[in-house]
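Morning. Coffee machine broken again, so started the prediction first thing and wrote up yesterday's gels while waiting. Chain of 151 residues, entered below exactly as on the submission form.
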Amino acid sequence: MTKNFKSLTVSLGCVFGTLAAFAPAAHAAGALSAQDAWVRWLPNDLPAAGYVTLKNEGDQPVNLVGVSSDAYGMVMLHQTVSNGSTQKMVMVDKATVPAHGTLAIAPGGYHLMLEKAKHKIAPGDTVNVKLQFSDGETLETPFAVKSPSGQ
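Came back before lunch.
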């Protein structure tokens, strides 16, 4: 009986191990994944900012080259640039996610500008953003909408 129990345990372990290996990671495409995605909502139809951490498990760097959303009429990739005592936002064509590394799209650096909301959006909502990469991968990523304080 002990031998049969051990065989059953090994068999079940193999089955669950195989299933886990083929289960998709949350918000992942190939070697890329998106984590901690959120939008800083602003009132009165002001443009919102989107933030996310992109992780690349691959052996080659990959560029984020496009962003879009069915909830907003316009989504752009911007970078905050400091020039002495002033800062400005500059639209950029791409941002590189290094091989075996991460790219923080975060306040004070790269960020997504989301403009022209297609419907009422408020803190507590979720909006989907499509992230397009230079290797052809696309991540459909849910972004949690938070208040201006990030709550």
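The chain has one domain: 27-146. Going to sketch it on the whiteboard this afternoon.
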